[in-house]
Amino acid sequence: MKLKKILSTCLLAGASLLSVHANAFWGSDDDETLKLGYLVKQPEEPWFQTEWAFADKAAKQYNFELIKMAVPDGEKTLNAIDTLAASGAKGFVICTPDPKLGSAIMAKAKSYDLKVITVDDQFLTAKGQPMTEVPLVMMAASQIGQRQGHELYKEMQKRGWDVASTAVMAITADELDTARRRVHGAMDALKTDGFPAAQIYTVPTKSNDIPGALDAANSLLVQYPDIKQWLVVGMNDNTVLGGVRATEGQGFSAANVIGIGINGVDAVNELAKSKATGFYGSLLPSPDVHGFKSTEMLYNWVSKDVEPEKFVEVTDAVLITRDNFKQELEKKGL
Ligand code: GLA
Questions:
Q1: pTM of the full structure
Q2: How far is the CA of 32 from the centre of ligand 1 (A)?
C-alpha cells in the first residue's frame, strides 16, 4: 500500500523526481555528509597512495567522505575543482602537478568558496613567489637532503672507496622548490664531509619519474667514462632509481654504486629484491602524517572554523635499507 502510494507520487512528480535524482547524483547541499577532496599529482607513487590511505583514516575517524582524485596536469586540476564543487565538497588538500598553478587553483577554489590546504609542494604565484598565505604541510626538505648526503658519505667510507675515482651524480629538478632544497642539501652535506666539490656533477631531469631520471643519468655517465664508483643523489626514490638503473646499463655492479633515495615507501620493491642493487637505501619520512594531518586540518577548518597553521614541517626521517625496511615500515604502520 505504502509502496503503491510512493510510486504514484513519483510518477506524478516526474520533473521534481528528476531533480531529486540529479541532486543525489551530484550530492547537493541537501546531502548531509561532509565531503572533502584529496588531489595528488602522481597517484602511481606509493608516497601519494600512502597519503591517501591515511587521509582515508582521518575521514573514517571524523566521519566525512573523502573524494580522492588524480591531477597529473593543470587542466585536470581545474576540472577536478569543478567536479568537487558540483559534488558539494567544502574543500580539498592538494599536491599540485605544477606549483605555478597556485594562483589559478586558488582563484577557482575561491569562486566556489572551497578551502584549500597544500601538501608536499608549495604553491607559487605566476611570478614564482611562494604563496605563504596558503596552508602547507611538507617535509623538512633541506634537512632530509643533508641527511642523504651524510649517509652517502658514511657508506662510501665504510666501503673504503678511493675518492679520486669516485663521483657524485646529482639528478636535479630545481624548478620544484622542495626538490631543489633536498638535492642542494645533499650536495652541501657531501662537501662539508669532505667530498671534493669538483667531483660533484649535476644533471637536470625532464620528468620526475624513473624514465626521466634514467635519461638524465645516461647523458651524464657518458661524459665521465673514467669514474669507477658513483654516489647517486636525487629528490626522491624514483629519481635515484633512474640513476641507479643507468649505472647498471653502463655495466656498474652493486658494489660500485651507492644510491640513497627519499620517500621510503617508493623503494620497497627495490629493497625487497633477492640480490642487492646499487640502490642502497632510502630516507623514509612520514607520508602517514602528511596524509592524516593535512586532512584533519582541513576538516577542523571546514567544520569547526579552526584556522589551520600556515606551515607544518614534518621533520623525522629514518634510513631504511635491505636490512631493516620491513621493521621500520611496520613501526609506522605502513
Ligand atoms: C614531492 C615529490 C614526491 C614526494 C613528496 C614528499 O612532491 O614529488 O615524490 O617526495 O614531495 O613531500
A1: 0.90
A2: 34
Q: Ligand 1 — pocket residues by CB below 6 A?
A: 45, 47, 95, 120-121, 138-139, 178, 208, 236, 262-263
Q: What angle do CA 138, 140, 143 make, to 5 degrees?
A: 160
Task: Determine contact, residues 234/260, Cβ cutoff 8 Å.
Answer: no
Residue nearest to atom 9 of ligand 1 (CA): 236
The separation between CA 80 and the C-alpha centre of its own chain, rounded to angstroms, equals 18
Q: Report the pLDDT averaged over residues 273-284.
A: 98
Mean pLDDT of 255-276: 98
Q: pLDDT tens, 33-57?
A: 999 999 999 999 999 999 999 999 9
Judged against a pLDDT cut of 90, whether residue 12 lies above it is answered with no
Identify the residue whose C-alpha is closest to ligand 1 atom 6.
120
Burial annotation 179-189 (CB, 10 A radius, 16+ → b, else e): bbbbbbbbbbb
Q: What is the CATH number of domain 141-284?
A: 3.40.50.2300
Of ligand 1's atoms, which has the minimum distance to the CA of residue 95? Answer: 7
Distance 48 CA to ligand 1 centre (A): 8
Where do the structural domains in the chain lie, given as residue ranges? 35-134+287-315, 141-284
Structure confidence by residue, pLDDT tens digits, 64-76 = 999 999 999 999 9
The CA 232 to ligand 1 mean position distance, Å, reads: 18
CA of 121, closest atom in ligand 1 = 7
Nearest CA to ligand 1 atom 12: 120
Could you identify the atom of ligand 1 that is nearest to the CA of residue 237? 9
More confident residue, 307 or 28: 307
Q: Which three cell numbers stand for residue 278?
A: 646499487
Q: Do domains 35-134+287-315 and 141-284 have the same CATH topology?
A: yes
Residue 332 near residue 284 (C-beta atoms within 8 A): yes
Superfamily of structural domain 35-134+287-315: Response regulator (3.40.50.2300)
Neighbours of 172 (CB within 10 A): 21
